[in-house]
Amino acid sequence: SPNVRSIDNLVESASCLRVLDLSKTALGALPKSIGNLLHLRYLNLDETQVRDIPSSIGFLINLETLSLQNCQRLQRLPWTVRALLQLRCLSLTGTSLSHVPKGVGDLKNLNYLAGLIIGHDNGGPEGCDLNDLQTLSELRHLHIENLDRATSGASALANKPFLKDLHLCEQAPLIEEQQSEQEQENQDDQKETEEEEKEVLDVTNSQFSREESIKASEKIWNELTPPQNIEKLVIKKYRGGKFPNW
User: Fold this and answer.
1) Where is each R13L1/DRL21-like LRR repeat region domain found (predicted)?
2) Which of 24, 91, 219, 230 is most buried, most CB within 10 Å of its CB?
3) What would the pLDDT profile of 65-122 be if each residue is shown by its tens digit?
4) How do strand 112-117 and strand 89-91 relate by DSSP bridges?
């Protein structure tokens, strides 16, 4: 299987590479030397085992396609991707990324953007928001994930005259582990009463939280108005009680 040293050797011996397709290999990491392939225009790492992308990728100033689809172990994308100003295609679907770094809006030549994660898993400020999309007027295909984590950018889909394919997906709802109640004998009346009150309170809080989540979801979606030139629309994991006004 390919390793860091073998890729290092490849970079050294073929520094004029324009296309590098390592998809569906057992590649586990990219060497820092990948940034030396200054002529590279196409880099495909789909379905590999890479966990991290070196920051030196920002030196690939001629790169037009970066595909990381189904890299299930990929957990981090360096902020230097914002330096790839010639990038036309960025595919991130099927990864384990916690967030996409802010600055995607600098990639104004993008026409294909898939797997854009909104926000950050831990609520941190590093992740993209919908505002990052406002300058991407060349987009033809856009796939947004975790839309419910958006905090701003209601007009993010405005000025998208070429957008034809739009996928909108919310974050999967948290699965609450249900523990089966075990009946206990010889409980006094006081304990039984406390347990009953706690159950009622838990149900009430759960219903309130669910209602608030639905309202927040509906608000985001109502503010997000896709352009009329859309030809394909995919909506997944929408938690709202009714579809958006548009």
Assistant:
1) 185-246
2) 91
3) 999 999 999 999 999 999 999 999 999 999 999 999 999 999 999 999 999 999 887 7
4) parallel
Domain shared by 72 and 164, yes or no: no
CA-CA distance, 41 to 202, in Å (whole number)? Answer: 55
In a domain, 108, yes or no: no
- Determine the structural domain holding residue 230 and report its residue range: 115-170+216-238
More confident residue, 132 or 122: 132
Backbone angles phi, psi at 217, to 5 degrees: -65, -45
Torsion of CA 105, 106, 109, 111, to 10 degrees: -20
The model's pTM:
0.81
CA 105 – CA 95 distance, rounded (Å): 21
Q: In the beta sheet, which residues pair with residue 221?
A: none
pLDDT (0 to 100) of residue 176: 37
160 in the same domain as 47: no
pLDDT interval class at 197 (50, 70, 90)? low
Which residues sit opposite 89 in a β-bridge?
65, 112
Do 93 and 125 lie in a common domain?
no
Q: Which of 94, 9, 6 is nearest to 45 (CA)?
A: 94
Sign of the torsion formed by the C-alpha atoms of 133, 138, 140 and 141: negative
For residue 218, give the nearest of 242, 202, 188, 194 by alpha carbon. 242
Specify the CATH number for the domain of residue 87: 3.80.10.10
